[in-house]
Amino acid sequence: MKVLQINSVCGVGSTGRIATDIHKILKDQGHGSYIAFGRGTSLNCDNSIKIGTEYDNYTHVALTRLFDKHGFGSRKATQDFIRIIEDINPDIVHLHNIHGYYINIKILFEYLKKVNKPVIWTLHDCWPFTGHCAHFDFIGCEKWKTSCNKCPQKVEYPKSITLDNSKNNFIDKKGIFTGVNNLTIVTPSNWLARLVKESFLGEYPVKVINNGIDLQTFKPTQSNFRNQYNLNNKFLILGVASVWSERKGLDTFVKMANKLGEDTKIVLVGVSAKQKLNLPSNILVIERTNNIAELAEIYSVADVFVNPTLEDNFPTTNLEALSCGTPVITYATGGSIESVFDGCGYVSEKGNLNELISNICRIKKDGKTIYQKSCLNISKVYYDKTIAYKKYIDLYTEQCR
């Protein structure tokens, strides 16, 4: 079996690591595997294919910024890539993020419909069935159910600074993405699966395959983190994000900091240097770490991981915390609640800061140790990537019969 995955990035970021994890399993089982990507450089893949050039990316960005035509640039880059696909002749094509300024969705799907090969499409956000945005839960928009227009998030990713083309984008994407004979959609969460079934993509079968993580890296890990930052005898509340914003809950941590006692410390990973200037003194900032072993140390030393996200699909940070034996508290947002089982954390009403703090106090009173066994068991049963991503191999085999 020969599989071609297509994603915006390869081996970096959550979607890029998912693609390379699947690639490794395929190779280990003796299958042919390729990953095509459009941004940055490739990591951890011996058969990677770069789609287009940096110039192609920049012109696609310009098309998006000026005309709100994201997904409709990169014509020549996509045509050249189609010829590469024809040379590879994969048995199955697995799409991940096809947004990201690197591929022309119309040309790609015209080809997929013509060759009539099995297609798996893992949705990591909502962009495929909206006229513009990748997420809409934060503002409660439901235009995507009927027809997008006058997008209230025009300046959000993929940002347009002039025109609003959301109405035409919605119509075009509906025509482009529907009518593929052998396409199966995969979502990491039940929440996103329900949205897909309500959208124009509802004609396709939808399967849920949770994201997985590397339990050999994310595990209870000893470190001198507390000594290094003079945090001994402190109750540590941890937050982690690749980019912090109001939607990710940065404001919630600021409000929380003003309500906590001196025996408690908030640690935030991923805060920018500019954001750091406006945070209170009882928040310890780790601007960024690309060292996942170091990140596992920080997860392990925390007493509780708090994810006050106001918009999310199936956050990997929750899984990473659990696998390090740290209980999780999250708002009832999207698919974030689906990884918080009894005994490994609490779900708070969305936006209810008092309930969030009350649940933190419960863990502080109980002590982290009574939650650790449940956290570790949950991560081993559900989120071990070697188990999770073998489900994709089973799906490939099923679709290729």
Strand/helix succession? EHEEHHEHEHEHEHEHEHEHEHEEHHHH
Share of residues in helices: 25-40%
Could you name the ranges where pLDDT drops below 50 across 5 or more consecutive residues? none
Any idea how many domains?
2
Radius of gyration: 22 Å
CATH class of the largest domain: Alpha Beta
Q: Approximately how much beta-strand content do the residues carry?
A: 5-15%
What CATH calls the topology of the largest domain is Rossmann fold
Distance between the termini: 11 Å
Tell the overall outline. Answer: globular
**Which architecture of the largest domain per CATH?**
3-Layer(aba) Sandwich
Mean pLDDT: 95
Can you tell me about this structure?
The protein has 15 helices and 13 strands. With 401 residues, the protein is an alpha/beta fold. It has 2 domains: 2-212 and 385-400, Glycogen Phosphorylase B (Rossmann fold, 3-Layer(aba) Sandwich), CATH 3.40.50; 225-382, Glycogen Phosphorylase B (Rossmann fold). The strands form 2 sheets. The protein has a 7-stranded parallel sheet with strand order 3-2-1-4-5-6-7, sandwiched between helices. A 6-stranded parallel sheet has the order 10-9-8-11-12-13, with helices on both faces. Helix 11 packs across helix 13. It is globular. The mean pLDDT is 95.
